[in-house]
Every structure is written in C-alpha cells, then in structure tokens.
Amino acid sequence: MGEYFWDTQMDYLKSTKEQMWNDDYFEFLVNKIWNIRSSKDVIDFGCGYGYLGMKLMPLLPEGSTYTGINMGEELLAEARKIFENVPFHTEFINMDLREYIPQKQYDIAICQSVLRHIPQPKMILEKMVNSVVSSGKVICIEVNRRMENAGLYIHGYTYDIVKKDLLLQSRWYDELKNGGRDYMLGIKVPIYMEQLGLKDVEIRVNDFVEFISPKHDGDGYEEHVKNFQKLNNVQGTSYKSK
Fold it and tell me: CA 101, CA 89: separation in Å to the nearest integer?
C-alpha cells in the first residue's frame, strides 16, 4: 500500500482547520444549541490529527471520552502526541471509514470537512447514525464550496473571480458525475439525515469570515495573502504595496 495522501498534507490541514470558525461561536453551539450538560462519549469520523477533538473536549463536562477514527498513521501519531496528557480518556482507530463497522454506541458522532471528500458520503453518514444511542447527536461540519467561493475577494490583487467560479463549478460537476467528491455536499447533508431517520434536524451557518488587510496583518500581510491564495487556488497578480 502506498503512502496515505492526507499523511502528506499536515501543514495544509492545520492551515485550513484553523480557519473554520470563531471559538466563541463553537462554545455557543455546545452550550446553547446542543445544550450539553452531562458527560458524553464522542466519536470523531475522519479525526485527522484531532483538531476537532481539541476544540470540543475542553468544552464538555468531566468524564467525557473521545474516540477518533482515521486512516493514516502519521496523522494519528500526531493526534496521540497532542492528546498525550489530556484529562479525559482517548482512543484512536486506524481504519478506512468505508470499512469501519460500529462496534459500540456513543452519545455524539461528529465530523468536520470529511464527507465532501468521500464518494458515497451518505454511506459514511449512515455509519455515524448507527454509532449513536437513540437520544444521541450526529453533527456534521461540512462546507458548501459554492457558497464559500462566492464570498472571495482579495484587495490589491487582480483576478477574475467569476471565471474562477465557473471553472470550479465545472470541475465539481465533472467529479461528482464521475463518482468523485461532492463539493456542494454541505447543503445536502440535512436531507440525507432525514432520509436516514434522524429527527430534529437543524442547519446553521458559521459566523467566521477571514479578513486580510495590510492594516490588520501588518508585516505579515503578503505572506497571509500568499497562503490564502494557495489554499483557495487563486492565481493573483499585480499586487503593489505603498
């Protein structure tokens, strides 16, 4: 078996995960929307190096546990290192999500930017549903890339966002048609949840917006812009600083 692709993308994963939400918004979800008041057993599908667990577990009551499933020993090695001294029980399982068969039931099954990268994501979502108790929660943090791309603007760079938008749409449709990833999955997940028998399905839009400007970023502005361009596949030119 060759090297697992995402094991080679640690820097990319860390850069993108850090731009997912405002921490105060996540705290709001845990405390006000999900209303978690007692300890919970959590299973994280496609946990990667454990970013989501690092954000979620400190917000949960004492006695909560965290189990992460991911394919890729490098990612899991980083996760085990990060979670080495945490005050709650952890377990990490190295397995392809498509082959995973739930062995027990948890209070919460959660994932972040995972389903959109997997062909037949509804199959993985069904595994998440089968992994929780009857009163449990299935939480999917998934992006609709069409919405994400619509808000892209970089001041000081010239690029045609309309052409980029059309190009990406064409790529997304082609990949989906050929059995690949669904970059517009985010808006479909609630329907899949209902079809799989989940109740009280709710949808929320994260309040995070990445803001980059010379005044805001200072000397780090150009590097921040370059990293943003790389992550979003934007070919910008003609930047001029004063």
Answer: 21
